[in-house]
Design goal:
Elements: E1 5-13, H1 28-31, H2 42-49, E2 55-59, H3 60-65, E3 81-85, H4 93-102, E4 106-110, E5 126-130, H5 137-146, E6 152-155, H6 159-167, E7 173-179, E8 209-216, E9 222-228
């Protein structure tokens, strides 16, 4: 498939959770700095994040959760282009303004004709990719490579979208920073969500991995790198 090489890059707990709880107000970025044993090593994740691809595939839901919709006069332009899936929409006018200020180029992928992105006309660094019904992610990833010449891309979305992309064979590599914590909670988001496998004939949906590297970080954090056997 002629698509970008993709890497799922996330921060998780040892038990695979990507949030501190089920409430949208709970989040690693805001909560880990408050917790002794986690705050000491958290900066390492952000340092590694700065060295990922210059194209970052996100969701509006995740962006809203980390506060992009709040007024922020300190945002400056980065060399990173953000590709944001947002149907509801989760982004508002302030969020759009912040992302446009932050992004080298901002791609909004949506099925929502009333998305606030459509109100930003004649903006040089905005590209809207619209699907009239359901987003065809295979088609979308082909467009990224063939129309926009995106050769590599980091994926940082939520558990549901991670699951969709994984099942479709659209994730090539996994780079996970594991924090020294056990969070638990059946309603707390994990790295891969979506529907559970409920029959033997669906075992083919399981993606196996080939270990590429194990990196011991400071303060009991580790980084694991895998190739996905698609």
């Amino acid at each position: 498939m002629d698509k970008p090489i993709t890497t799922l890059f996330m921060l998780t707990s040892l038990d695979g959770k990507i949030s501190t709880g089920s409430n949208n107000s709970l989040d690693f970025d805001s909560d880990f700095p408050k917790i002794k044993g986690l705050k000491e090593g958290l900066k390492q994740y952000y340092d590694i994040e700065q060295k990922t691809d210059l194209f970052s595939f996100n969701s509006g839901k995740v962006q809203a959760k980390i506060g992009i919709n709040k007024k922020n006069d300190t945002i400056s332009k980065t060399p990173v282009s953000f590709l944001v899936v947002d149907n509801k929409p989760h982004l508002n006018k302030i969020g759009m303004t912040n992302l446009l200020k932050k992004s080298k180029k901002l791609f909004i992928i949506t099925t929502n004709k009333k998305h606030p992105a459509f109100n930003f006309k004649n903006v040089d660094n905005l590209e809207i990719i619209y699907y009239s019904r359901k987003i065809d992610f295979v088609d979308l990833f082909l467009k990224f490579k063939q129309l926009y010449n995106i050769k590599s891309m980091t994926i940082q979305t939520g558990s549901e979208l991670n699951s969709t992309l994984l099942r479709l064979g659209l994730i090539d590599k996994v780079s996970i920073v594991i924090s020294p914590a056990l969070i638990g909670g059946k309603d707390t988001s994990s790295l891969i969500g979506g529907d559970s496998i409920d029959s033997i004939d669906k075992l083919k949906l399981i993606k196996t991995l080939k270990l590429i590297d194990v990196i011991k970080l400071k303060h009991s954090y580790i980084q694991l790198k895998y190739k996905v056997n698609n």
